[in-house]
Amino acid sequence: MSGDVGTFADAGNLEHCAKYLNQTLVTFGFPASLDLFATDPVSIARTCNCMYALLQQRQRDIEFRESTNDLRQRMQSDISRLEAKIERMDAQLAAKDRELATLTRTEAKNTAALKAHIEKLQQERDEFQKMVIGNQQVRTQQIHETKKKEKEYIKLQLQEKLNQVLMEKKKESSRSGMEIMNLLQKEGRQRGTWTGKKNDNDYYKMIVSSEPLL
C-alpha cells in the first residue's frame, strides 16, 4: 500500500481495500463490519457505528495529544525550574565550599596561634615559677642571715655587757682590796691589844664581812 491517502483506493481495488480496512480495524480493536457495498439499513448502520468509533478514537487521540502536550509543557517548565534551582544550589554549594575552605584555613591559623600562645604562657609560667623559687631561696637565706646576725648581735651585746660587768666587778674588787689592806693595817695596829681565840675570830669575820660578794 502507498503512503499517499489520495491513491489508497480507486475503482479497480475497492474490494481489496475494503478487506484490508476490515483486517486493520480488527487489529486495532474495532468491529470488522465495514461493508461499503451494502444497501440495506442494517449494514449501513454497522458501517456508521464503525465510522463513529473511529471518530471517537480520533477525538480521544486528539485529547490525549493535547493532554500529553500540556503535561510535556508542565514537565518542561518543572525541569526548567529544577535546572534553575540546581544551578542556584550549585552556586550556593560552591560558596559554601569556599566559606568552608576559608573557615578551615582560619581555624588552622587560630589553632596554630593558640598553640603558640599556650606554649608562650607555659614558658612564662615556668620562668615565673623559677623566679618565685629563687625569691623563696633568697628570702630563706636572708631570714637565715638575719637570724645569724641577730644571734651575733645578741652575743656581742651579752659579751659587752659581761665585759662591762667584769670591769665593774674588777673595779669593785680593786676598791675592796684596797679597803681590806687599809683595814688590815688599821686592825693590825689594834690587834696587839686583843687577847684570846675569840678576838681572832672576830677579826676574820670583820675582814670577810667587808668583802663584797660577786
Query: Poorly predicted ranges (pLDDT <50, ≥5 residues)?
Result: none
For the sheet with most strands, the description reads:
none
| Span of the ends, CA to CA | 169 Å
Morphology call: rod-shaped
Cα-atom radius of gyration: 74 Å
Task: Tell me, rounded to a whole number, the average pLDDT.
Answer: 79
Strand percentage lies at under 5%
Question: In total, how many beta strands?
Answer: 0
In sequence order, what are the helices and strands, one letter per element? Answer: HHH
Query: Helix segment count?
Result: 3
**Helix amount:** over 70%
Going by helix content, strand content and strand pairing, the class is mainly alpha
InterPro entries: Afadin/alpha-actinin-bd
Coiled coil: 65-131
Pfam families: ADIP
Keywords: Coiled coil
Main attributes?
mainly alpha, 214 residues, 83% helix, single chain
